[in-house]
Amino acid sequence: MPDDATIALHYRTTGKGANEGPIKNPSHVSTVEPFREDVLAWHRQGIQVSSIRQALARQHGYDGSVHALYRFIRREPPMRQWRR
């Protein structure tokens, strides 16, 4: 088992430097956020999430996971259906 200092170093959220361990994202902003409009538009058109991920990788160099896209889309409120 790692000691407390090693565990704390792993979960550190601030600072920088190669010997200080990984830095976690304290704001929890989705990696998909910069592509919000494209992703939501494609999703509204019925394009599959795996295809959206491939398009983001091709067009923007996106290296996030398909699961990040699923989480992002799931958090978005459903589109309202307007009736006339």
Can you describe what's shown?
With 84 residues, the chain is an all-alpha fold. Helices cover 45% and strands 0% of the residues. The protein has one domain. The protein has helices at residues 4-10, 36-44, 49-60, 66-75. The radius of gyration is 18 Å and the shape is elongated. The mean pLDDT is 80.
Task: Name the descriptors.
mainly alpha, elongated, 45% helix, 4 helices, 84 residues
Tell me the layout of helices and strands.
Blueprint: H1 4-10, H2 36-44, H3 49-60, H4 66-75
Short description:
The chain is mainly α and 84 residues long. 45% of the residues lie in helices and 0% in strands.
Strands, total number: 0
Order of helices and strands: HHHH
* Overall average residue pLDDT: 80
Shape: elongated
- The whole-angstrom Rg is 18 Å
Task: Tell me the distance between the termini.
Answer: 64 Å
Give the class from helix and strand content and strand pairing. Answer: mainly alpha
* Share of helix, binned: 40-55%
Tally of structural domains: 1
Q: Beta fraction of the residues?
A: under 5%
Q: Biggest β-sheet: count, sense, barrel?
A: none
The helix tally amounts to 4
**Low-confidence regions:** none
